[in-house]
Amino acid sequence: MTQQVNLTINGVPIEVEEGTTVLRAAEKIGITIPTLCDHPDLHPYGGCRLCVVEVKGFRYPQASCALPVIPGMEVITESRALTRGRKAILSMILSSYYDAGYRGTQKETQFMHWVRHYRLTPQIKRQREVIEAPRFSVNADPNPFLWVDMNKCILCTRCVRACEEIQGRFVWSLADRGMSTRVVSGADTDLLSARCESCGACVAYCPTGALDNKMSMGAGLPEKKVTTTCTYCGVGCQFDLNVKNDHVIRVTSNPNAPVNGMHLCVKGRYGYDFIHHPDRLLKPRIRRYLLEGTPRPADRGEWVEVAWDTALDLTARKLTETREGYGGDSIGVLTSAKCLNEENYLMNKFARQALGTNNIDHCARL
Fold it and tell me: Quick one: 242 and 268 in the same domain?
C-alpha cells in the first residue's frame, strides 16, 4: 500500500499519498495556489514560479507544483512576501506580452485571471500604447484551424508538453535563448509542415490565448454549453458544444469526460460545421415510386421526405421480401464507424440472426 504523509497547509492538517506535490495537496482541501505553467494532465515544469510557497525550514520559497510532500511539512501559500513576488513575476511576464486587442474564444484566460486578481490590468493598456509594433504577426500560421499569436506567449510550455504527452506529435519546441526564447513549430516552420495533426490539444492547454480556435474567432461568447458525445467514431469522446443563437460556435474540451478528458482529434474539435450545413438531411427520404407502389422510372424518381415510421416500415418490408425471395446471402449490411461498439454489435446480431447473412462490413474499410 502507498504510504500516507501528514502535513499542514495554512494551518490545516492534511493526509495525502506519498509523492503528491504540495500544489495537488492544497487542491484537495480547497486551497487555490496561483499557477500558469502547471496542469494536472501534464508533467510538472516549474517554469512560471507563480506557485511558490513558503515552507518552514526552507530558506527560499519553493515551487509547489514540483515539490513533493514531506512528513511534518508546514506550508504557507499566502503572505505579503509571496504576493509581492507573484506581482513582480506577472509584471516581468507582461513586459514582453502584447495584446493586439482582438477578442479570442474565451471570456477570460487563466493568465488574465491572475493579472486581474493582482490588479495589474493597467499595465496591459500601457504596453499597447508604448509598443509601436508587436514582435510577431497576429494569426501568424496558415493552419486552417489554429490561430497563432505568439505576442501572448509566456513560455509556460504547456503547448509543448501537451503535444508531446497528450498527442505524441512533438510539433512544438523552444528555440533560441534568454530574452529571445520563443516557441516554434518543427524547425521553425509552419504547423502543417511540422506534421501537426490539428487536434487542438495545444489550444486547449494554452493559458493565455496565444493559441486559439481560428474557426471561432469573432463568434463571441456562448450563451450556453451542452455536453455531448462525438459522432465521428465509436470511441465515445465527450466534449462541450458552445452554443449561441442556437448555433454551435466552437467545441471545448471537457476535463471530466471519462474516455478522453481534455484530448480530442481534429474531427471532434473542429468538424462541427456539418451540424448547420444546408445539405444536411434532417428527415428520412424515400423514392416517390416506392412510396406510391408504382414501377421504377428510369431516373429512379425524386426523393420525398417521410416520417420515420414510414421509412422503417418500408425498409423492413423490402428486407423481408428480399430474404424470402432470394435468401439471406442476397443481402449485405454495412455498418458505420461512427456508431458505438454496442450499436455495431446489435447490427452484427441483426445481420446474422434476423436476416440470416454473414455479409456484414463497416465503412472504415472503404
Answer: yes
